[in-house]
Amino acid sequence: MAPSKKAGKKVAPAAKKGGGGKNAVAKADWKEGFKKKSVGVTDMTLLTQITNESINDNLQKRWLNGDIYTWIGGVLISVNPFRDLGIYTDEVLQRYKGKNRLEVPPHVFSIAESAYYNMNAYHENQCVIISGESGAGKTEAAKRIMQYIAAVSGGQDSSIQEIKDMVLATNPLLESFGCAKTLRNNNSSRHGKYLEIMFNAQGEPIGAQITNYLLEKGRVVGQVDNERNFHIFYQFTKAATPEMREAYGIQTPDAYAYTSLSNCLDVPGIDDSQDFDETIKAMRVIGLSDYEQSEIFRMLAVILWLGNAQFQENDSGNSEIVDTSVTDFVAYLMEVEPALVQKVLTSRVMETTRGGRRGSVYDVPLNPAQATAGRDALAKAIYNNLFEWIVSKINISMKPRSSTAHLIGILDIFGFEIFEDNSFEQLCINYVNEKLQQIFIELTLKTEQEEYVREQIKWTPIKYFNNKIVCDLIEERRPPGIFAALNDACATAHADPTAADNSFIQRMSMLQSNPHFDARGDKFVVKHYAGDVTYNVAGMTDKNKDVLVKDLLDLIGTSGNQFLQGLFPDRPDPNSKKRPPTAGDKIKASAQALVENLMRAQPSYIRTIKPNQNRSATEYDTAAVLHQIKYLGLQENIRVRRAGFAYRNTFEKMVERFYLLSPATSYAGEYIWQGDAKSGCERILIDTGIARDEWQMGVTKAFIKNPETLFALETMRDRYWHNMAARIQRAWRNYMRYKHECARRIQRFWKNNKESIEYAKIRDYGHQILAGRKERRRFSLLSYRRFMGDYLDINGKSALGEDIAQACGISENVVFSSKGQILVTKFGRSSKPSPRYFVLTQKTFFIVVAHSKDGQVSLATERKIPLSSIKSVSMSNLQDDWIALNLGPTEEGDPFINCVFKTELVTHMLQLTRATINVVIGPTVEYTKKKEKKELVKFVKDETAPVDGSYKSHTVHIRSGEPPSSLSRPPAKRKEGVVRPITQGKLLRRGGPSDKPAPAARPKPASQPLPGKSSATPAPVAKPTPVAKPTPTASAGSRAPPPPPGRTVAPPPPPPPPEPEEPDVERYKAKFPFEGQEGEMSLKKDDIVELVEKDDNGWWLVKKNGTEGWAPSNYLELIPPKPKPKAAAAPPPPPPPPPPPAASGGGGAKIPAAPPPPAAPKIVPKPVTANPSAKPVAVFPGMAPSNGSATPWKKSPAPSGDTTPASSRPNSSLAGKPPPPPVGSKPKPAPPPLASKPGAPKPPVGGGGGKPPIPTAPRPGVAKPPARPGGGAKPPPAPGGQLDLAAAMAKRAQMLREQE
Question: Model-level pTM?
Fold first, then answer.
């Protein structure tokens, strides 16, 4: 026995004599499991004492042992290790694939597996909420979840892999632009993001979307000591290429005020140069073009150089620029006038109003402090809009490729922050964290207890702190909260920031009644769930306004840089009296939208804890961790988890998931329970043997106490499928035994026919080619005659075959090979046949000659004839073997050959050329002997001639053959064998089938619809009798549509119902695929549509499958109408018309042929003559048109000069495409822009025909493009020298009808 290749498995040694076989059991190997010695408890619901101190002690033990993850039921607690533990490798990831959380140690991969499994199993949206303070590891957890989902979600399609790569590429890109070093975290997220990964019904990712929340743009212009600006500035200034440094004047980070004033240029453990390469790579994966990348770096350079614009006070007390060369370079980067930059930075335009009317306009100079504030506002606005533009581009690139079935959301948002100086940014960040804590309380504590009461479940209530009072303190309108007071202060004292701050302080006095608020002069304290935070009022109202002054917006509006203008698409209307939304309004709306998104999904929680403030891998700050345990509410969470029920679901969902586990509710996979869902759910739980104290039945839901019980149910469900599979396998194996025995018997009789049937098909096709025009040899008509093809065994590598292949220089398979003769002309003597070898490949016909010299025979290629050069093949109407290959005017002339397998050779030639070669059969054969010299060979019947005939002086003498209409002889009947019964197989009755009636089987219970479903298996619906149209001949019982007259059995008295006439509607065929938008008709190539309405602008209203929509006219091709057949005189069908000798309607199955015209039977057959001036007659009408046009299958779908893509509609949401017209109305005044198809005029510039090189208008609101002049594009004309086959056939049929 071969050794096992499984890790840790060894072949057991042979048992020793007298050993009793004890050594036969393989020794257990520790490698089979990967659980190391556990420290503490992995699930804190198992703690003996439930106190904050015992929780802290358990987390500390596990953290010091390298176990950073711990469960509280289904909530994962993560303690940041501040070091790489090597626990995120692919090997570790595979261990968690398909495992529930009880089978493996706690890990973030287990949370990801649970979310992905639940999404697929229960068809519900999932979300993962990661919370904790700054530096606790939230961003890392989000990255690992994305890593796991990308690894296990499957899908081999290139678009699915592209989505996975894009999702993973968002991490380095958004970290560079959205993360920075703070005092507490080297890679702190200074923004929030909610990533939604969309999946199709198979669980494969098909798209994603990122929602951005509150970028800390104030960090761009200033940081506290020992912190840094966003990572991208240091990556850019350290690792920029020489070309970038030359173009944007980039220097090292210490040369810029925005990156150097905090005295922190480098961070231990962060390689800015390497991270810059990762950022560039991520930009390419996302799909940012080189132009877009260069413009992003140009904007970063603008911000860096803006920070170096310093101001000083002049003699009049106003500000002036210290170094104008800096502002001149900023103007160069922004592509504006340098003087305008200096003016905007040092002065402001003020406008007075009188009684609502415009007054005077003044240029008010700014002092240095005001000028610095304006400069910083411009820098912050550019960076904030640049970040939002990058997020929007990411969303466009990751737009779902198909319909979305479910999604998984991953929330990575800024953590709770408490600094020495806390301002408006910290208030917003902590407010969002309060909302997340409120969700956690609502879903895990408050909602759970309320549900127990509502469902009448026996339960011990748990006291907990509800932070809704803190959320109301910040966000409520009535009574006004902090945000409302901020807005009122900004509205009443908007001109003076100091006055606005004082007004805000006064308005906060109304909040003193809230126990979680305390006013302290120019500061105030909010008692958050995570601790008390003191906020500084100074500058809050100014930050809340979040409005860029009009002068700076006008400066950007004059820029020649389209990318910069595109970053500011929404400019406020100066005449509007509506107050623009403040920063507080925006964050409150964003937080509310986030809460709504999270509440629509099934949540999973990761609570992150920061063990110390020094980012140390060995220090565990007990006091700090204990504080986090308290405000995260872990103790209350454990109490609720231990006292409550781990899983609950509606009766309908429970029955739908587990009805297979009880024989009372299922039979052969069908639901058969007759009662309601509650009784069915209870019966399932009883039949599975679950203890009664492990579950309770509520009013609408079933509650299961421990997750182990749910996992046991899932295991039983999986085992059910395995058991059913085993039963199916037993029946299948028995069936296969019976099938194989039957197959063996069939093979005994069919073996020869099966191998030769393909050759027989080719033989039958040869009969169709000759079309009853040539006498046959008896050998050709034998029943066992097959067209084998390679008679010289070249493909079989015989000795002769290899020599011939070498002489021809071919390595491909040969279609046909045979010996034969060729008519050789010698000077001064008459022509005579000479032996040759004939070889036919896919594209070439070879004539090989054998030479003898010094007793050595050598082979050489005499002629090499491409099949495409053969115009026609000429043969006589007698049984001779002569063929003339008509090549047209050539130096060597046409070969006139003699081949025993002439019909087979011609058959293969027509198959390889798709019947483009004409087969001319007549009493004489004309061929070109030499260039422009033709010869005519006559064929004479002579019964005294040799069997194979004779050639002399342009005349062939041949005996009479079989009639031209002869076909192959039918195969001889074989002797019938003795039928023996099949007795093999475990379930088969020996002696063959029995006449005894089988015992009555157990009646199958009736299938019932699942609870909440319309029907388990839809019952057959009686087909309604179609209502007859009000015509005199139609009867109520007739079928619609009626069959053709030839197959209708009419009642004796009345005549058969006539065939309904096709509606007189123009029908068109799609020449190209077209992806329609709303109101448009999507087309695939060769789709058939009916024309409803034509419009002059190039868009036609068409109907397909009962649906109407607009389609471009230049994508459609007219289908000629079928001629209406004459009514049949009698019910029996007329006999089929005989095929004309010049045009056989047959053809091989592989030869596409145009349908013959209906009037073809009226053509009078004409004899084929040897008229040299007459054109050859094609075997297949329409296959080789005589007008010089190409064959239908060789016609290119478009002229060679066409460079327009198949679908030239703009596909970017940034292109400003007008909405499509609704169905049923004309698309006026202009249709959606379409690039021209082959032969159509190109649309004018600005028509939106192609994707713009840069997103000049990335937001909606762009004016509609002008209508193209002259309406839509004309349909493409046929290429020169070609004729549309369908049109020619229709024209021919029309001419024949006119002749009649």
Answer: 0.53
